[in-house]
Amino acid sequence: MENLEKIVVPLIDWYQLNHRVLPWRTEKTPYRVWVSEIMLQQTRVEAVKEYFNRFMREIPDVSSLANIDDDKLLKLWEGLGYYNRARNLKKAANKIVEQGVFPNTYEELVKLPGIGDYTAGAIASICYLERVSAIDGNVLRVISRIVGSYDNIADNKTKEKIRELLIPILPERVDLFNQALMELGALICVPNGEPNCEQCPVYDICFAYNKHETSNLPVKKKKELRKIEERTVLFISDRDTIVLQKRESRGLLAGMYEFPNYLNHLTEKEILEAIGELREHVIRIEFLGDTKHIFSHIEWHMHNYFIVLDMLPKNLEKLWVTLSDLDHIYAVPTAFSKGRLLYEDRKES
Ligand code: SF4
Question: Is the pTM for the entire model greater than 0.90?
Fold first, then answer.
């Protein structure tokens, strides 16, 4: 599009009048922008606000992040999901502490664990006014609509084409421009339902608006179907305490605590085999119900059971915890929340 630079001034003006007041925008340090951008990946702004404020209270700077206990970090992240984001924050904080200074260019930022092209662009442009773009899903959608691009936005090549379009028009106040594009995508040029074009500052030059193509743009190829995994989850309890275990340090939900669970929907006989020596103390096995949790590439279909024990065989190498400790000390993934509610309801009845 030849006249794409025409969007710059109207967008910046619109942003200055209409942007949302958000905690990470009021005091804009690289640390705060970085943490907020990582939290905002795959997560709604409203959900992030409280997590962000709590995180900043508990871990106010890079050196405290580098030194935070892993369990405490995961506890602060509990419920946000995609826990590798938290682990990578800590890894990156360690590198920054080693280097002695927060990186201030896109090239340096993108080398840090967990910081991809978009996040590096966002920090470099918002905090250091480096003329680089920050292209997230919002920006891909907005620019595809404005210029009338029918390229698949799930394809990396499309992102590179859009970057090429943006490079020549990035203004001195690249911080405001990049944020304006993202904010327009979040508030006006929305992904679901019709965009609110009448309130858009660039509708007069927008291809999608003028050609009535907003419902066809952007083009996004359908996601592949997620793999479905059946799991049997066990709430093994003597009514005061419950068994927890720690997940492997690699892979999905690495290093978090969980209720013992096994692949497939096990029969009662198979459950008794799976719990080993604990079976000597089982009074009964109660089916609690089925629950489901959706990760990005996999769905867990969980069959939850309450395993009632007569006593605590504490000599066995199991982690027994009270429900209060479960709330305050151990980070348990949200995937188990609905099953836990079923267990607590049954325990009380
Ligand atoms: S005019 Fe409509 S489709 Fe075009 S950028 Fe604005 S909100 Fe999006």
Answer: no
Specify the 3-state DSSP secondary structure of 294. Answer: strand
- Whether 214 is in the pocket of ligand 1, judged by its Cβ within 6 Å, is yes
For 326, the domain range is: 227-348
User: Do residues 321 and 241 touch, judged by C-beta distance below 8 A?
Assistant: yes
The pick from 6, 7, 142 for probing ligand 1's pocket by mutation, whose C-beta has the most ligand atoms within 8 angstroms, reads 142
Taking the C-alpha atoms of residue 282 and residue 272, their distance in angstroms, rounded to an integer, is 9
The CA-atom distances, in angstroms, between 291 and each of 83, 243, 275, 306, 330 are: 21, 19, 21, 14, 21
Active site residue 37: yes
Q: Is the CB of 146 inside a 6 Å radius of any atom of ligand 1?
A: yes
**Among all chains, which residue has been given the structure tokens 């074009």?**
197
CATH of the domain at 62: 1.10.340.30
Give the residue, out of 187, 197, 204, with the most ligand 1 atoms within 8 A of its beta carbon, to mutate for a pocket test.
197
Rounded CA gap, 325 and 43, in Å? 27
- The model's pLDDT over 10-65, given as tens digits with 9 standing for 90+, comes to 999 999 999 999 999 988 899 999 999 999 998 889 999 999 999 999 999 999 99
CB 289 within 8 A of CB 304: yes
Q: Is residue 297 in a domain?
A: yes
CA of 207 to the centre of ligand 1 (A): 8
CB 214 within 8 A of CB 208: yes
Containing H/E element for 37? helix 30-40
DSSP 282: E
CATH of the domain at 311: 3.90.79.10
Candidates 275, 276, 280, 305; CA nearest to 290 is 305
14 Cβ inside 6 Å of ligand 1? no
